[in-house]
């Protein structure tokens, strides 16, 4: 396929295109991302809400929001900082391995706490470890995958979300009576994936980025946002993720306090059903969206339409706050979010301002994923408490996703 090379393409392209043959790299990356999302969703959707409901049942909504917001500050800070450090060292492997092993240690800690304070500290440390791991894993695609294959690669890697999310929620749902076991299993999954990727990924040594004065580093740290297209990609990702996590973070409590479930179906068991439905739909749209966006070279179209769909489907549980309504919502939301994340990731790799700062700039972009998770729990708790309960929460989440769809329009260098 012939594509037009823009100025932004030339700025973000490395001096030497990554080799067309990547061997077994993509399966290892898929495994690394699968493990990452297994931990994120298993802990965030099931284990942590259950643990907080046990520790502080009367204030579970506000407490979960506080822990989610504070811990996301650590995610927002550690992701780009660790990315910049891996750029400087010229290696991704040590950061992947170190983050994965640290994640196992922090999950052990979380499984042994019984107060809100210690749960907060434990999840903050967990977010720090996981974002060290994530920043290095994310940078491997722009480092080592040819530009023409970015959509397909992002789709393969993006399967980590539906597969990992399903795996994580199933593990967590089966271990709610033994939270320590659940945390340890999820931590071990990440640690094993980190070992395999670093052992068999055959990472070529990159030229380390030379150290610069602190003032210049701070200026350069967010310089990517000075790029028009990168800035709009950042805004669109932030709005979409904010809308998504406003709802997802409270799914267990939505099923407990808002949705009418069939007799005998417990909320944790309901999540174990809804998650595979959502993730199966996500897997389908991740692959189809990524491959077709490469074939047609129309990535903005896929990103915009999927974000719009994510916004519109939020009305389903409002109109029908039933088990059937939640099943329909989960399937459609999975289709939308899977396509968005797969193709939007490809868009981002194509608008990076400087290839030699790929991990740092991808880390800045990941603020658009981690940053909204800081405010999402606070927004969600405020909406639930003062602006219409869970019905208002779905409507706010939908409005944010629709705004995310509009943010893709100003991007110029990607079709």
Automatic annotation (TrEMBL):
The keyword rRNA processing does not apply. GO terms for cellular component: plasma membrane. Signal peptide: none annotated. It holds the Pfam family MFS_1. It is found in: Cell membrane. Keywords: Membrane, Transmembrane, Transmembrane helix. InterPro entries: MFS, MFS_dom, MFS_trans_sf. GO terms for molecular function: transmembrane transporter activity. The chain crosses the membrane at residues 20-41, 61-81, 153-176, 182-200, 234-256, 268-289, 301-320, 326-352, 364-384, 390-411. Residues 26-415 form the Major facilitator superfamily (MFS) profile domain. It is a multi-pass membrane protein. PANTHER family: MAJOR FACILITATOR SUPERFAMILY (MFS) PROFILE DOMAIN-CONTAINING PROTEIN, PTHR23528. This is Putative MFS family arabinose efflux permease.
């Amino acid at each position: 396929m012939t594509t037009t090379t823009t100025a932004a393409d030339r700025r973000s392209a490395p001096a030497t295109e990554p080799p067309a043959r990547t061997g077994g790299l993509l399966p290892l990356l898929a495994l690394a991302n699968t493990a990452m999302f297994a931990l994120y969703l298993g802990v965030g959707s099931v284990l942590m809400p259950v643990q907080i409901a046990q520790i502080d049942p009367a204030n579970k909504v506000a407490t979960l929001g506080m822990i989610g917001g504070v811990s996301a500050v650590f995610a927002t800070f550690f992701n780009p900082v660790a990315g910049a450090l891996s750029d400087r060292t010229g290696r991704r492997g040590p950061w992947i391995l170190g983050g994965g092993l640290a994640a196992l240690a922090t999950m052990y800690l979380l499984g042994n706490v019984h107060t809100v304070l210690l749960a907060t500290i434990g999840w903050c440390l967990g977010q720090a470890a996981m974002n060290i791991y994530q920043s290095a894993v994310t940078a491997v695609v722009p480092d080592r995958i040819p530009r023409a294959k970015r959509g397909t690669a992002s789709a393969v890697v993006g399967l980590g979300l539906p597969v990992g999310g399903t795996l994580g929620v199933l593990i967590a749902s089966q271990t709610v009576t033994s939270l320590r076991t659940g945390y340890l299993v999820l931590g071990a999954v990440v640690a094993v994936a980190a070992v395999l990727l670093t052992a068999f990924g055959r990472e070529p040594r990159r030229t380390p980025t030379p150290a610069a004065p602190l003032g210049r580093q701070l200026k350069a740290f967010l310089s990517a946002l000075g790029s028009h297209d990168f800035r709009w990609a950042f805004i669109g990702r932030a709005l979409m993720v904010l809308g998504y996590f406003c709802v997802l973070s409270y799914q267990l409590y939505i099923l407990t306090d808002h949705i009418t479930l069939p007799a005998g179906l417990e909320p944790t068991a309901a999540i174990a059903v809804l998650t595979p439905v959502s993730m199966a739909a996500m897997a389908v749209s991740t692959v189809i969206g990524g491959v077709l966006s490469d074939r047609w070279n129309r990535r903005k179209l896929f990103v915009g339409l999927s974000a719009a769909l994510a916004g519109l489907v939020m009305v389903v549980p409002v109109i029908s706050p039933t088990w059937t309504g939640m099943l329909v919502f989960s399937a459609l939301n999975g289709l939308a979010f899977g396509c968005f994340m797969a193709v939007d990731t490809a868009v981002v790799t194509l608008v990076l301002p400087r290839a030699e700062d790929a991990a740092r700039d991808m880390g800045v972009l990941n603020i658009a994923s981690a940053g909204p998770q800081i405010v999402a729990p606070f927004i969600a708790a405020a909406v639930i408490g003062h602006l219409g309960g869970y019905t208002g929460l779905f409507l706010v989440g939908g409005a944010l996703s629709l705004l995310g769809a509009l943010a893709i329009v100003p991007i110029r260098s990607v079709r």
